[in-house]
Specification:
The structure is a single chain. This protein has 2 domains: about 110 residues, 60s Ribosomal Protein L30, Chain: A (2-Layer Sandwich); about 150 residues, Phosphoribosyl-aminoimidazole Synthetase, Chain A, domain 2. The longest helix is centred in the first third of the chain and has 21 residues. The chain is an alpha+beta fold and about 280 residues long. Helix 2 packs parallel to helix 3, helix 3 crosses helix 5 and helix 5 crosses helix 8. About 35% of the residues lie in helices and about 25% in strands. The protein is built from 8 helices and 11 strands. The chain has a 6-stranded mixed β-sheet. A 5-stranded mixed β-sheet has the order 1-2-5-3-4. The chain starts with a strand and ends with a strand.
Length: about 280
């Protein structure tokens, strides 16, 4: 699967689009839950090589007569607006409904739309054994660990304990990641690229290999971390935001490091594509 859909609109252009929910994180930590939902959906667009041009949302809440619903509503709306405005992409349309059925579990759906020259699209693939695997973007921390499983759990009175599993986004770093990634794709040094979303490095590595019927050898001691003493388990499952996994030809990692370094971001080779059909750490 690719990170987002593409529609050829003629004249050498395509429109990239995707919609995704961030319901459970927004129910527990509405501001960061909604903000990182917006950040993640924009990353899905520019990993296709497209520049995001606008965002949309579809929201559902309980009755505003309830104080907790007002708290959730305020946090979600501010999270969506603050991340988009800081990133530089406006929210141009949306809808919101209030029904009692959504009191304990609001629905937060974010959509991003982008435009790309067809000649500069990118794929979430790791097609060629021997090619190098490079982690680009921000440092890896302990935030968001188990975020993927927590996002699918049932909300109950104990859900507040899951607050540490909600990711924390940085739209200013994502803006740097956007510009660096589009430059790297235009320069032709990216064979494949995958956003690190749910389950972090685990899902991005497995998804790229699954789409190409290949494998990867990953050296976790090479992953740039912002906290000391992180275990391999934590590194593989961290959902720290503003990170991508890139596959490139041998030797191209120097060009990647130069491009991402210009934007004050990491571009660290952490592995190699293999023929094994397995991801080995």
């Amino acid at each position: 699967e690719e990170n987002a859909g593409l529609v050829d609109v003629g004249d050498g252009k395509a429109v990239a689009f995707k919609i995704e929910s961030h319901n459970h994180p927004s129910a527990v930590e509405p501001y960061e839950g909604a903000a990182t939902g917006v950040g993640g959906i924009h990353r899905d667009i520019f990993t296709m090589g497209a520049r995001p041009i606008c965002a949309l949302d579809s929201l559902r809440f309980g009755s505003l007569e309830k104080s907790r619903v007002r708290y959730l509503f305020d946090g979600v709306v501010r999270g969506i607006g603050d991340y988009g405005n800081s990133f530089g992409v406006p929210t141009v349309a949306g809808e919101v409904y209030f029904e009692d059925a959504y009191e304990g579990n609001p629905l937060v759906n974010a959509m991003s739309v982008g435009v790309v020259d067809i000649d500069y699209t990118a794929r979430a693939a790791a097609d060629t054994p021997g090619h190098h695997v490079v982690l680009v973007g921000a440092d890896t921390g302990r935030d968001g660990i188990h975020g993927a499983t927590f996002a699918s759990a049932e909300i109950d009175e104990d859900s507040e304990e899951d607050r540490p599993s909600v990711q924390v986004g940085d739209p200013f770093t994502e803006k740097l990641l956007l510009e660096a990634t589009l430059e790297a794709i235009r320069e032709g040094v990216v064979e494949g690229i995958q956003d690190m979303g749910a389950a972090g490095l685990t899902s991005s590595a497995f998804e790229m290999c699954a789409s190409s019927d290949t494998g990867m050898d990953l050296h976790l001691d090479r992953v740039p971390t912002r906290e000391t003493g992180m275990t391999p388990y934590e590194i593989m499952l961290s959902e720290s935001q503003e990170r991508m996994l890139v596959v490139c030809e041998p030797g191209a990692e120097e060009a990647l490091a130069e491009i991402y370094g210009k934007w004050d971001l990491n571009a660290q080779r952490i592995g190699t594509v293999t023929e094994s059909g397995r991801v080995r750490t």
